User: Fold this.
Amino acid sequence: MQVLAYSCLHYGKDYLSYAVRSVYNLVDRFAVLYSPHPSHGHKSVRPCPDSRDELRAAAYSHNSDGKVEWYDGDWRREGEHRMAVMEVWKGEDLILPVDSDEVWDFQTLETMLKFAYKHEAHDYLLSSFVHLWRSFGWACTDQMAPVRLIKPTGSGTMYLPKVGQVYHFGYAQRPETVRYKWSIHGHRNELRPGWYEDVFSRWPERKSDLHPTCKDIWNAEPFDKGKMPSLLREHPFFGLEVIA
Assistant:
């Protein structure tokens, strides 16, 4: 079984190296598709918080076997950015999308890869995400299931088994990163009015109804960060009560 992992990258230095490390030993190649401009359909007057050099250093910080490959592009739409992986695909059995703020549990990914390899879908949906909120010690959950494995030769859609977890740190970020994220986000027009000031910034007073676009689906609950992959204990944010 050959696996190509890839990340569509514009910003995300704080967790990128951890995302790469979490999948590194289970993939054959990791392609980083970097765009200097946002590729979600929106521009921003805010400066990108991360430079190309910072991102490249994070991507290559764990590359003992030379699996990481860097590709520069200038994609302006998310679909185009994601489909660019097919330009670097070399016939691997499976393609693994890895967002820069997502960290996999090793056994979870191993199970998912074996499952997808044995079945014949094209898109494999995953609903095992834990959405960390403002720190490593609080989290939200939902039933949403984005595509997190692709079999280029398959067809149709299939849900991956709900075993283990993937850790999403999109809202356990520095405030300036979250502000920039939503200034360029593909769903920017759906952002709830006043969400940043009334929800994100009111932590820890506000613990319920937290999702930026959907009502009544994210409630922060205490999370045992000791269950996380050991590599995350090295993260500089691990011991913070609030990431600020």
About this structure: Residues 11 and 50 are 5 Å apart (CA to CA).
